[in-house]
Design goal:
It is a single chain. With about 500 residues, this protein is an alpha/beta fold. The protein folds into four domains: about 140 residues, Rossmann fold (3-Layer(aba) Sandwich); about 100 residues, PAS domain (Beta-Lactamase, 2-Layer Sandwich); about 80 residues, Helix Hairpins (Orthogonal Bundle); about 160 residues, 2-Layer Sandwich (Heat Shock Protein 90). The chain is built from 16 helices and 20 strands.
Length: about 500
């Protein structure tokens, strides 16, 4: 069927039969399309037809008794029906023309001026306009769907970054509702508000910024690392606005950090093993020589000094052994253990330290316990190292430590947080390196050993800290048997919600 044979289904709403006959005659003389015309006289019948049947166009008289053609347009649109309606009137009225256009009429025709040419032109213009409008609406629906279903945060803001529109991804990433974000500036969600100064300056100078990294603070006070891309645009009124996308790369950054950490530990381990080999060879010769001299020498002064050499040689050997143990993958004897039960043992082992320094420890355990596969003594040592560090970081009398667990979705999470002195960014990067310590009497193997043990358990560890604000260590055991996910009451574990 070619375009000039297209069938148009026309509904004519007209209470005067003579007017309908006149309009029908005009249709008969138009050859550009084929027409199928239906005539209704009453308002209610017209509304029912437009709601229940598909028409290409509707020609509607303005006067229809108690209601008029503008009321029909509004009622049809209210029911989400899309038939284009052209209003007919006996005489021209500017106010009715304006009201009809605002209500959604596609055209406004005066019956006395109507002829075949005007009717043909009105149909052609209406079909073209309606087609373009549908394309625009389809495009809007498509982009609205992309906007609403995007996994990234998509936003529109005023030039000063005050948010005017934002999608629902903000709830998944930052745990804020869309309503919470409306009217707030981006600075309200940033860990370092000064970042926004650089960001806005680049947008104002260059017109856009790509993949600028910033740290956002969630509603749960977690830190999320995100990349933000934005550009300055202008609307039809030449008003500027900012549009952008925020992409969460927190997991990627953690993975990169873990990979870098593993590479550093591997390199450190190779260096340590080489160093130990080179140190032990001459050290063994020294030990053998000293032991031989101790047996053959009769001079008491010589024996005194030889004994000092022997003891310190043994001390060097012990240090080398400790260093090697901290760099090697730990040998594990895995068994099913209660995570909460293990944490209770760790907490009980530091009770004396807590009491002596009047430090408050609060345990907030999940109502569900989980049985994980672990080497209980070694995992206990790893968590104990973290807890002891927390105790040493907090002040006497006002120090507070919180141990929290979350067991769900086949994951077990342990968080140990304190209100201590915190860790600088520089020191945090070196935290798990062997022999790095900020303690006066420490040797720096505690956390290196902890990391070694946790990696042997396929566990991840994350550290969040701010100077003078405190530190939080989070350990995530990513897999355990779902059959072992039991309630604490069923497992017999004691849920500890009190302060020590």
């Amino acid at each position: 069927m070619t375009i000039n044979q297209q069938l148009l289904r026309i509904l004519v709403v007209e209470d005067d039969e003579d007017d309908f006959i006149l309009i029908s005659d005009y249709f008969k003389n138009i050859t550009a399309w084929k027409f199928e015309i239906k005539w209704v006289q009453r308002y209610a019948d017209a509304l029912e037809e437009l709601c229940n049947n598909q028409y290409t166009l509707c020609f509607c008289d303005y006067r229809l008794g108690a209601k008029n053609g503008i009321d029909l347009i509004k009622d049809v649109l209210a029911k989400n029906k899309a038939t284009p309606i052209i209003l007919l009137t006996g005489k021209g009225n500017y106010n009715i023309d304006i009201e009809a256009t605002r209500a959604g009429a596609f055209d406004y025709l005066i019956k006395a001026d109507l002829d075949e040419d005007k009717l043909e032109r009105t149909i052609r213009y209406t079909l073209e306009r309606f087609n373009n409008l549908q394309k625009i609406q389809e495009s809007e629906r498509r982009y609205r769907s992309i906007f609403e279903k995007s996994k990234d945060i998509v936003f529109i803001a005023s030039p000063d970054t005050t948010l005017t529109t934002i999608n629902y991804a903000v709830n998944d990433i930052l745990n804020f509702s869309v309503e919470d974000c409306a009217g707030k500036k981006l600075t309200a969600f940033l860990k370092n508000p000064a970042d926004i100064d650089y960001f806005t300056s680049r947008v104002n100078i260059d017109g856009e910024v790509d993949n600028f990294e910033m740290e956002f603070v969630t509603a749960n006070k977690e830190i999320k690392t995100c990349l933000i891309s934005a550009s300055m645009e202008s609307d039809s009124n030449h008003e500027h606005y900012l549009q952008g996308i925020i992409h969460d790369i927190t997991d990627l950054k953690k993975a990169e950090k873990a990979s870098l950490q593993a590479e550093k530990l591997a390199a450190s381990g190779r260096f340590i093993r080489t160093l130990a080999h080179e140190v032990r060879n001459p050290l063994n010769n020294i030990k053998l020589a000293v032991e031989n001299l101790l047996q053959t020498s009769a001079d008491e002064d010589d024996k005194f000094y030889l004994d000092i050499i022997h003891r310190n040689g043994q001390r060097i050997n012990d240090l080398v052994t400790e260093l090697l143990l901290s760099s090697r993958p730990a040998d594990m004897n895995f068994a099913n253990i209660s995570l909460h039960g293990l944490l209770h043992q760790v907490i009980n082992s530091v009770q004396d330290k807590l009491v002596m320094r009047n430090i408050k420890l609060v345990s907030n355990f999940d109502n569900n316990d989980c049985i994980i596969k672990a080497d209980s003594p070694k995992l206990e040592m790893a968590i104990l190292n973290i807890l002891v560090n927390a105790i040493e970081a907090v002040p006497d009398n006002t120090g507070t430590i919180e141990v929290v667990t979350l067991c769900q979705n086949k994951q077990a999470q342990v968080s140990i947080s304190d209100n201590g002195c915190g860790i600088s960014t520089e020191n945090k990067e070196k935290l798990f390196e062997p022999y790095f310590t900020s303690k006066r009497n420490g040797i720096g193997l505690g956390l290196a050993t902890t990391l070694n043990i946790l990696q042997s358990h396929n566990a991840k560890i994350d550290v969040q800290s701010q100077l003078e604000m405190g530190t939080m260590f989070t350990i995530l055991f990513s897999q355990y048997n779902a059959e072992n996910f039991v309630s604490a009451a069923a497992s017999g574990a004691t849920i500890d919600h009190h302060a020590y």
